[in-house]
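Hello forum,

I keep getting stuck at the same step: I have a sequence, I want structure tokens, and every attempt I make locally crashes halfway through. Rather than fight my setup again tonight, could one of you with a working pipeline run this one for me? It's a single chain of 460 residues.
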Amino acid sequence: MNMKKLTLLTAVLILLASCGSKDRGELVGVKGKKWHPEKPYGMELVPGGAFIMGKADDDLAGVHNAPAKTVTVRPFYMDETEITNSEYRQFVNWVRDSIIRTKLAILADEVGMTPEDGGIGEFAFKEADTANMTVYQKYIYENYTGLGPTGYEGYNLNHDIDLIFDTAEYPDEYYAEVMDTMYLPMEESYNGQRTWDVTKFKFQYTYMDIQKAAKDRSLRRKDVLLKEEVEVYPDTTVWIRDFSYSYNEPMHNDYFWHDAYGEYPVVGVTWKQAKAFCQWRTLWKNTYQKSKKGAHFVNAFRLPSEAEWEYAARGGLRAATFPWGGPYAKSDRGCFMANFKPVRGDYAADQALYTVEAKSYEPNDYNLYNMAGNVAEWVDSSYDPSSYEYMSTINPSVSDMENERKVVRGGSWKDVAYFLQVSSRDYEYADSARSYIGFRTVQDYMGTQVNSKNGKKTKI
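Reply #2:
Ran it on my machine without issues. Output:
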């Protein structure tokens, strides 16, 4: 009797499901939101494809670390230029301001001040308006806010009021107390000026070690979630440390800070800082996407793999020595094609003693600037002189968490022409910063965009 009732109930449910469905019982798939990706600002589409990676001609340096190998990479977007000082300062300022606002809000809470009290109270955490929350948002707020090492995790900072940096305009002693902790001690002031204590400004993020998770399926999710904390300010002392017995103090003092160098590539950043920048750029964009109703989160910004970088640098040219073809570093009119060290150390022969603006010289056929020279660029891959022998032929990427040697590509303003070749490899340690190494980011390509005028799909 019970089996008959169960069979009848199942039949009724199937009938109801079929009657209420618009698919007429056909297999039509799950319908999601329409996907309308946008072309990332300041990036160019690298179409992807197969190419011969490595040395296409004689290995003049005799390092034998880049034998020719045919590989295929998927399409991706890449920054037109190296990340500039101005762009990196946006990251630094965001981290700095967020940390200052957090400290102000915590002190306001500790002394019991609110926006109505003025002063530091104006920077107090925003109180949650539970009346306008969804059921889920209210549940999360009531059960998870404040759980963490500081007790303030999940609270919303007040970004509606500007921070005050002029000491003459500090609103009260509490505000002055917080700001005082952000600078170096008074006894370390120089020429009457106090500077930021850059060790206080760190960016924290969490990521998943997918490679580890894939190799050991017994691991739980928490076992492969890794946390990083990275100081964000570039090391300006590289201009002094990289060159013994050389007067480079003006570059140390002005290169990152002065607006005159805003469009020049950032240097003095480690591989770890470049990775942190990618995480922040993704967070920054997706925070905006979240504010737009119905908008999709964007794919993560990241450093390119070594294969992606070389493919992009070649610009679609087969067996090319340089991004512009080659085999020479000069044009047919005798003009240098990149910023490097020509003529046995005559740095100024190419009209630049150090770096040049990121959008200088002619771009390659993918519209990418300075893929050779200016500054060398961090890539995501770990350096192994024999990696070409065992890496995959599809989207090759050699990423070893234990290997601190990370690949840099493209050569720089202080390198000879050999390092400008698209196939030349070099490396630096992940925690090292140099006056001649910068980076650019990439983002995975996910399809086409609908043209709003005619409704047709076009590649972007």
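Residues 94-195 form one domain. If your local run keeps crashing, start a new thread with the error log.
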